[in-house]
Amino acid sequence: MQLKEVVPLGRTLTEYTAMFSLNKADLNKNILDCGGGPSSFNYEMKMQNKEVITIDPLYQFSKEDIEKRIGETFDDVMAQAKSNKDDYIWKNIKNVEELAETRMTSMKLFLNDFETGRNEKHYINAALPYLPFKNEEFDLALSSHFLFLYSDMLSLDFHISAVDEMLRVAHEVRIFPLLDLNTDKSCHVEEIIKIFKEKEMQVSIETVDYEFQRGGNQLMRICKN
Ligand SMILES: C[S@@+](CC[C@H](N)C(=O)[O-])C[C@H]1O[C@@H](n2cnc3c(N)ncnc32)[C@H](O)[C@@H]1O
User: Fold this and answer.
1) Spacing, Cα 26 to ligand 1 middle (Å)
2) pLDDT tens-digit profile of 89-125?
3) For this chain's UniProt record, which GO biological process terms are given (predicted)?
């Protein structure tokens, strides 16, 4: 991973809770966040005495380097959101100013926690489709805005290997959203449903109480029987 190709953006615990329909019991599970990036989910969970492990290849870089890269890219990302504002539903987040504040608050919480959290092994430098964990170490593995979103760049085989690996280390996988970067349904969704049903997993698509990317209000849940 080259840092100059990364556009870091992080979401909050409130957003994770809504995107993944996390209820009280879910929040008490052993959770692995795959591709958590500069999200504050891990830190905000820690503040509630809950331990989440987050993996991301971004964590090979230093706090200073990640912070610098956020500074280099943030204004452009917000300008793009402004010029493409019809692609988004401005309900939970009311306007671009609120979006900027929410994302920046989340990333600052992450940055302040990153070095401590990395020493505590809460943030681990790893990349799908390989996870440095034992079988069944987690109850729940999450992917927010990584799988499906980059379907133009990541093949179906990559998605199958990534989900297989997440199911090796966790009992259940949830992926949100099912859209790609053009806000179209990912070309891999139907194949993934078919393939994992053939592997005798329970696969369901569920509508959630969160929609920011227009049409992005569904998660995929894949469970071992
Ligand atoms: C759009 S960000 C989403 C961050 C966070 N999950 C959220 O929703 O706020 C996508 C993340 O995927 C990470 N990523 C890229 N390649 C990856 C891989 N092979 N395995 C896991 N994460 C990866 C990136 O570094 C980036 O932090």
Assistant:
1) 22
2) 998 899 999 999 999 999 999 999 999 999 999 999 9
3) methylation
DSSP of 105-140: HHHHHHHHHHHHHHHTTSEE---TT---S-TT-EEE
Domain boundaries, the chain: 3-223
Cα(81)–Cα(22) distance, rounded to whole angstroms? Answer: 27
Helices and strands per DSSP (H, E), number in the chain: 7, 7
Distances in whole angstroms, Cα of residue 178 to Cα of each of 77, 203, 206? 21, 13, 10
Task: Report the nearest atom of ligand 1 relative to the CA of 58.
Answer: 25
One-letter-per-residue 3-state SS of 139-184: EEEEEECCCCCCCCCCCHHHHHHHHHHHHHHEEEEEEECCECCCCC
- Contact by Cβ (8 Å): 123, 117: yes
**Domain 3-223, CATH:** 3.40.50.150
Atom 14 in ligand 1: residue holding the nearest Cα: 35
